[in-house]
Specification:
The complex is a heterodimer of chains A (147) and B (243).
Chain A (H helix, E strand, L loop, with lengths): L3 H22 L11 E3 L22 E5 L3 E3 L2 E10 L2 E9 L14 E4 L9 E3 L5 H5 L2 H9 L1
Antiparallel strand pairs in A: 1-2, 2-4, 3-4, 4-5
Chain B lengths: L1 E6 L2 E7 L6 H18 L7 H6 L10 H16 L16 H18 L5 E5 L2 E5 L3 E6 L7 E7 L2 E7 L8 E2 L4 E2 L3 E8 L2 H14 L1 H8 L5 E6 L3 E4 L11
Antiparallel strand pairs in B: 1-2, 2-3, 3-4, 4-7, 5-6, 7-10, 8-9, 10-11, 11-12
Helix pairs in contact in B: 1-4, 4-5, 5-6
The chains are: A alpha+beta (147), B alpha+beta (243).
């Protein structure tokens, strides 16, 4: 839980520019804020007109806004917020600290059933310590074949 | 050029495909391994390891090589919470688990320094390859003439720790009892020093050692537990095309 709290705080911090940005648009769509707001082309009936230059987002279109990158002691945090109309539809992390405390250190292991196979191979891994075991081993067969 | 010799207590198979790499290179390689055996064997009373263990040598008197080996042993002991321990109570100092990988990796570096670019060095089932792709089979934990997986390795190392053949020979230093939670652990890494020590340490830890090894940077893992379940890392370089 200790990790969750700073992440939430930072997410909120990342949202601050978004909140600041909203009033600047006012109630009408603006064409001067494209450096922050990226309209996602959606094939809706209203935007499919052949008049071109449909970069002006309609009030109901999706809008993706990137928060500013914030440097923390653990690394850089940056969130991305997707708006649908004036509602937030998703929040994702564009950058998150690559730090052992906040990233999963263990990869997700794949589980399989144990199989027995024979195959053309160049060498064998797996202890062949005693000379008796070596004589009977696949590695001995490989060595004998190549000698 | 191919050569098989029994040294350090196990068969060592060498295959070098480069033209111009002759017997003198193989001679130097096997001489190095015999030197390692003489200096670091816990079974030779006059070895540096035994003399240090008996207190005849002090830490500052040790060779740079043995100091390096003991440092590696200590790193793995700490990293495994004591499961990997070369100083078990009531037993002589036995750094074999690190000495093997470390010395065979050095041997492979002798080959590279001599100009070899395409070779397989297999020391008792622990393997260093260069200039592949090579197909490396992993011995099945229960059937000696079968494989449980085949991996494709171009340059690098793979080591397997398992219960077969020598039985329960790896001790969990935390409990002092033989490790029995796994049947077999194979670790692929850039060097055999890392692959071999990590495989042995993971085996000593048991099932949790699989996750521990998987989290080590640069290591890929393929493990069979006592219930015959396979767990492997997504990046384990399993060969895709059967030959």
């Amino acid at each position: 839980m200790k990790r969750v709290i700073p992440v939430l705080v930072l997410s909120v911090a990342g949202l601050i520019p978004v909140w600041r940005y909203e009033p600047s648009i006012g109630t009408t769509t603006s064409t001067t804020t494209t450096t922050e707001a990226v309209s996602t082309p959606t094939p809706t009936a209203t935007s499919s007109s052949s008049s071109g230059s449909s970069s002006t987002p309609s009030a109901s279109s999706k809008k993706v806004v990137q928060g500013t990158a914030i440097n923390t002691s653990k690394g850089t945090v940056q969130v991305q917020v997707t708006f649908e109309g004036d509602k937030i539809s998703s929040v994702s992390m564009l950058q998150q600290p690559d730090h052992p405390q906040t990233t999963a250190a263990v990869p997700v292991l794949i589980e399989e059933t144990l199989k027995a196979q024979s195959s053309k191979i160049d060498t064998v891994s797996g202890a062949t310590i005693t000379s008796d075991a070596y004589v009977q081993s696949l590695q001995a067969a490989i060595d004998a074949k190549g000698a | 050029m191919r050569r098989v010799e029994h040294v350090m207590g196990f068969p060592v198979s060498l295959r070098v495909d480069d033209e111009g790499i002759g017997d003198e290179v193989a001679d130097a390689l096997f001489a190095w391994l015999r030197e390692v055996d003489a200096r670091f064997s816990p079974f030779r009373p006059d070895s540096e390891v035994c003399r240090y263990d008996r207190g005849e040598l002090r830490l500052r008197d040790l060779s740079a090589d043995l100091t390096e080996v003991l440092d590696l042993c200590e790193q793995y002991r700490v990293a495994t919470g004591g499961a990997f321990d070369v100083r078990l109570p009531g037993r002589p100092l036995d750094p074999c688990a690190v000495v093997k990988g470390w010395s065979v990796q050095r041997a492979a570096e002798l080959l590279t320094a001599a100009g070899a670019r395409r070779f397989i060095l297999n020391a008792g089932g622990d393997v260093v390859v260069a200039g592949g792709p090579w197909r490396v089979g992993v011995r099945h934990p229960e059937y000696a003439d079968q494989l449980c997986t085949v991996l494709e390795l171009t340059d690098g190392a793979v080591a397997t720790s398992a219960r077969y053949e020598r039985g329960d020979h790896i001790v969990d230093g935390r409990t002092g009892t033989p490790a029995t939670g796994l049947l077999s652990v194979s670790v692929v890494a850039a060097s055999l020093t890392e692959a071999d020590a990590t495989a042995t340490a993971a085996f000593a830890m048991g099932p949790e050692g699989v996750d521990w090894a998987a989290a080590r940077p640069g290591c890929e893992v393929f493990a069979v537990d006592a219930e015959r379940r396979v767990r492997r890392t997504p990046g384990f370089p399993a060969a895709t095309v059967a030959a």
